[in-house]
């Protein structure tokens, strides 16, 4: 195997890579709305063909000895198919909003990147005696092509999945909130007394500090614990609102029209942004619960969530997808927000009173 063969493979691959990267740049702009929309099923089928060709590429590379002419011929076939795959994928984004377009682009990029990596390694290791990771790279292409089947093909599905991710993050915050425990002076004294009694009556074990890990971090005052409990209720009710919103969105699946002028999709995108805004405020609430609790930030978050829920209700009503369950969930959440706001006001008043007492003592 001469150096000339490897150089020729490099030149051919370089040309294919440049063409592929240039074609991929079409995703930087949305397609003309009047263009014919390609169904996502066609894209998935093309992905299956790429997966098959990746397998053949791996077999050609590991044959003994590898034949440069066979690799170059298959490279031509593979990248021609990859070009067709890119054009079909782009055609599937006709009428797609930002969320669906982003999902499609990310899935397509995985196929492109894994394909380029496979052939770069195949050519760079051509003629080398050491073991090359071709099987693993072929597997990466398989995974990328298989993931196409899980990629959303409609705006509603893509936005529904994005909302579900917000709900998942909220559940994580809620779980952490529920781990907060109240501090108790009496409990601490009892533990201390028991520890002292045990120390006097029994030999001390170096590995036993007398307190378990579960006793650590129980430093919320009774007032802070009330705020924490109200916040947990708010986040729980918020989760129900998001879940009902997703049901309302998915029930609108039959309404989506590929030839829509964009109004329907724009409304869905606005709802998603509102959902994500609420998710960010829930994160703020979770971060502010740890002592000392940041009451002003929490009150601001409560206000934003409340106003966003109002806007969300209006948006869902405009889509004619409002359900009684969604309205009830929103009303319960508003009640919980009012209760939390009341707790925060009391907490803020107590803090102010404590500060005034300090001033009086200092005077």
3D structure, described in words:
- The protein has 363 residues and is mainly α.
- It has two domains: 151 residues, Up-down Bundle (A middle domain of Talin 1); 163 residues, I/LWEQ domain.
- Helix 9 runs antiparallel to helix 10.
- The radius of gyration is 30 Å and the shape is elongated.
- 30% of the residues are buried.
- The C terminus is likely disordered.
- Belongs to the CCNDBP1 family.
- Keywords: Cell cycle, Cytoplasm, Nucleus.
- This is Cyclin-D1-binding protein.
Mean pLDDT, as a whole number?
85
Shape: elongated
Tell me the CATH architecture of the largest domain: Up-down Bundle
Uncertain runs are 187-200, 204-218, 349-361
Largest sheet: none
> What would the CATH topology of the largest domain be?
I/LWEQ domain
CATH superfamily of the largest domain, by name, is I/LWEQ domain
SSE map:
Elements: H1 3-24, H2 40-62, H3 68-91, H4 98-124, H5 134-147, H6 155-178, H7 185-201, H8 222-250, H9 263-288, H10 295-318, H11 324-362
Helix pairs in contact: 1-3, 1-4, 2-3, 2-4, 2-5, 3-4, 4-5, 6-8, 6-9, 8-9, 8-11, 9-10, 10-11
In short:
This protein is mainly α and 363 residues long. The protein has 11 helices and no strands.
Features:
11 helices, I/LWEQ domain, 74% helix, disordered C terminus, 2 domains, 363 residues, mainly alpha
